[in-house]
């Protein structure tokens, strides 16, 4: 009975809850655009509007939310872990900076890079399942059999039964390559942008909602542009149904075949959709995250707890 009050009274507890709110806001706000992005990356169907119109006409608008249960179920823990690891490591890389000051931009970038690499262990199998569901039509061809995938659990069972843990973690290497550097740039861009928009806010924590939305949106857009070709390769690798009948034999082979068949432009197919989604999603993530932290710390202070108010990042 005393677990939640004690948990929420700790800095770790506040980070966990705030990270969960941020992640949920991001998934809900951007999932339809993410479904369009995945379909663009894995086909030659053209513009985002054409993909949207075709999907809605043939499968219905709710198909744009297909596979959302997997990322939504994992997003609380994933986001909490990323933000907490980042907050801890961003200071660990710069021990000379007083606790009352914000971490340096170098610490921010390094902390974000390590956090991104670690979170790949969670996000890689989740995105594998999500992509398999997003790309299925009403009758999905799986291992030369026409079936209907019923949801994340059904997809995971089928992959594990046929390929084991190796299949569940298909695409892990490319996910680490994508997320490590992009998360370092992501957190650096957010901290730098919000300080430029609202000087002094990194120390006093008084940035406005507008600052959080714009800084978070720009950080998301910049980080996605930096890793987009890697994401295209990851999508194509994870879209394959079975390793024995796979078209691509690894990261380099996928890159070479994709460029040979479709030209270098394939590595940027769907980037417009992704940047638009990234701005929306990451503006929502940082705004929800920072707002939740403020509420939790203010509520904590109003209840006269002994935990001092502090900035999250």
TrEMBL record:
Domain of life: Eukaryota
Cell compartment(s), UniProt: Mitochondrion membrane
UniProt cross-references to InterPro entries, sorted A to Z: MCP (IPR002067), MCP_dom_sf (IPR023395), MCP_transmembrane (IPR018108), Mitochondrial_Carrier (IPR050567)
Pfam families listed in its UniProt record: Mito_carr (PF00153)
KW ATP-binding (keyword) present: no
Placement of Solcar repeats on the sequence: 13-92, 103-196, 207-295
Major subcellular site: mitochondrion
An annotated Gene Ontology molecular function: transmembrane transporter activity
GO cellular component, one term: mitochondrial membrane
Coiled-coil annotated residue ranges, if any: none
Membrane topology: Multi-pass membrane protein
PROSITE patterns: SOLCAR (PS50920)
PANTHER family: MITOCHONDRIAL ARGININE TRANSPORTER BAC2-LIKE, MITOCHONDRIAL BASIC AMINO ACIDS TRANSPORTER-RELATED
Full protein name: Mitochondrial arginine transporter BAC2-like
Species annotation: Nicotiana sylvestris (Wood tobacco)
